[in-house]
Specification:
The complex is a heterodimer. By secondary structure, chain A is of the alpha+beta class. Chain A has 15 helices and eleven strands. By secondary structure, chain B is an all-alpha fold. Chain B is about 65% helix and about 0% strand. Chain B is globular, with a radius of gyration of 18 Å. The chains are: A alpha+beta, B mainly alpha.
């Protein structure tokens, strides 16, 4: 047995490889541990009776101020949510506050930059897009990774900040695999790994930074002339308070108070399947950009029609099958999708699946499998076979 | 150190190292839930002694060293259940269910051979191969002079090879490897 073989077997004998450890779903338990440590320092152990009593008293001393703080905070939330117009004229609903507080509360504090787009994909994942300069005409700003980070006009710059739970290792591995240049840079009191991707132009390099902050993984990606220019921008990321963060949100972010009405408007001219309930649109309660909310609405309707269609085919119910095909054949006329066409590719994907419905397969594969991944039916809470 | 500065530094330290440290502990305990107490106690020590935690990467190795002592306490039964870790203790067995290394019989033989080594050799090999630490870093964690780690590593590998060859690598190993997936009683 050679040294290399032995080393390889020893590595394989690791009962918990680093990648697997990085993916363990323990974020909330870890956040809880951190909060307990910070709040109580030592709230006590399951020890002998005497020690337990003594420590419980010490815990009570710490817990009481926390409880009082919680009551005051709740009162503030009720006031904000229920009545008061704030000095700025903006009433933050509890859900917006929750969104803000579920985010890392980080903004790009650099001259000329603004938040252009915000999306919360789940309670633990979200994205902000920042822009400097004028917003290009709609046909130039389709929402896709390439469009966001490919070369852009000289008078405008884009940057995105994404946050997600879990470990950083799988991210690092993925980014490092495509990087032409790697370095580190300070950000928010920690050190980020910075990757410059291959390609670009002399004035526009696609550069990204990964770092852990506040118990989650953050990625800041921007086009910049070089890594030094990127580092300058990266250093302008700043933690802010909830009010400042919310005040920076663009008008396109759907406010909670407007959401039900917005969804109702979006469903105008859209045939919905039997039993459809707008309250079942998964993710609609999360704060959404109008485009993202539109995708959740159109996607839920379409996925439910595909479910209806699939059930009908299974039971040989021709009338039910026709009902679904007829409804989806109107997709190109849905005002919601027509509006979304200007900003992204989601409608095009949906049209293609709708067109494939009469035939029933997708390039020789069962259609529903590709619909599920293409439209995100599973994440919208619609199960397809 | 100012309390706020200390808290912010601790928060960063926790964010940057906790998962890695948890993995380190999980690789060394019999039951996954035991890792919760070791990790909680380790960070409790760090939180109480933030002024002593070295800066930069050295903080990570300092934490490994603390965790190593807490693991020793845990094995002696001297580590009591910490309420800090209540939630982590409950969620760990579920989270790691299904985790585990290769079922290859040669790998099983290496695991069995590791168990035959003395604790010092075993820990040197694990720190090097599983935690990916360099000799100087291992020296910090184990509290031994840096110059001795390389030679001790060399000898530990030699003893491991001998132990593997002593076992019948064609047959399934008869010694259980360290488990991280055993359910809570």
């Amino acid at each position: 047995m050679t040294d290399t073989e032995l080393q390889s077997l020893l590595t394989a004998a690791n009962p918990l490889p680093a990648e697997r450890a990085a993916d363990l779903r323990l974020d909330e338990a870890e956040d809880h541990l951190l909060a307990e440590l910070l709040a109580g320092r030592d709230p006590g152990r399951s020890a002998s009776r005497g020690k337990r009593v003594r420590r419980r008293r010490r815990f009570a001393r710490v817990a009481l101020p926390i409880a009082v703080t919680a009551v005051v905070l709740m009162a503030l939330l009720v006031l904000r949510d229920g009545s008061s117009e704030r000095a700025s004229g903006t009433a933050w609903a509890a859900e917006q506050i929750r969104f803000a507080e579920a985010s890392p509360l980080v903004l790009l504090d650099a001259p000329g930059w603004r938040v252009e787009y915000a999306d919360e994909q789940s309670r633990q994942e979200g994205e902000l897009q920042f822009r400097r300069g004028p917003t290009p005409p709609p046909q130039d700003m389709k929402i896709s990774a390439d469009a966001l980070h490919g070369p852009v006009p000289a008078n405008t710059r884009l940057a995105t900040l994404q946050w997600s739970p879990g470990g950083i290792r799988s991210w690092v591995k993925d980014r490092a695999a495509s990087a032409a240049m790697t370095t580190t840079a300070p950000v928010l009191g920690t050190i980020a790994r910075v990757y410059q991707y291959e390609g670009g132009t002399p004035s526009h390099r696609d550069i990204t930074a990964l770092f852990r902050y506040d118990g989650r993984v953050l990625e800041f990606r921007a086009g910049a002339a070089d890594i030094e220019a990127f580092k300058v921008l990266l250093a302008r990321l700043k933690r802010v308070d909830t009010d400042t963060w919310l005040a920076a949100m663009p008008a396109s972010v759907i406010k909670t108070v407007d959401r039900d009405n917005t969804i109702r408007q979006m469903l105008h001219g859209v045939p919905v399947p039997p039993g459809f309930d707008p309250n079942d649109i998964k993710g609609a309660r999360l704060t959404k950009d109008r485009y993202q909310l539109g995708a959740a609405v159109a996607g839920t309707v379409a996925c439910q029609w595909f479910r209806h269609w699939s059930d009908a085919r299974e039971t040989n119910d021709r009338a039910k099958e026709r009902e679904a095909v007829t409804a989806m054949a109107t997709a190109k006329d849905w005002p919601l999708l027509n509006e979304m066409e200007k900003k992204g590719d989601y409608p095009d994907v949906l049209y293609e699946f709708a067109a494939a419905m009469p035939k029933g397969d997708w390039y020789g594969r069962p259609l529903t499998g590709d619909v599920d991944s293409g439209l995100g039916c599973d994440s919208l809470g619609v199960e397809l076979p | 150190m100012n309390t706020e500065v200390s808290a912010e530094r601790f928060r960063r330290l926790f964010a940057d190292t906790e998962r890695e440290l948890l993995a380190y502990v999980l690789r060394r305990v019999e039951r996954a839930e035991d890792a919760a107490d070791v990790v909680a106690e380790t960070f409790l020590v760090a939180w109480r002694r933030m002024d002593e935690v070295p800066a930069g990467d050295q903080a990570r190795f300092w934490l490994y060293g603390v965790a190593r002592r807490q693991l020793a306490n845990q094995r002696r039964g001297a580590l009591r259940r910490s309420r800090l870790a209540d939630r982590l203790r409950v969620e760990l067995p579920v989270a790691v269910a299904g985790a585990g290394g290769s079922e290859d019989h040669r790998v099983a033989a290496v695991r069995a051979a590791l168990v035959r080594l003395d604790e010092g050799d075993r820990e040197l090999l694990r720190l090097s191969s599983w935690e990916g630490l360099a000799p100087a870093e291992i020296a910090t964690v184990m509290g031994v002079p840096g110059v001795t780690v390389r030679s001790r590593l060399h000898r530990a590998r030699k003893r491991l090879r001998a132990a593997v060859l002593e076992l019948d690598v064609g047959a399934p190993a008869n010694t259980s490897p360290t488990l991280v997936t055993k359910p809570a009683p």
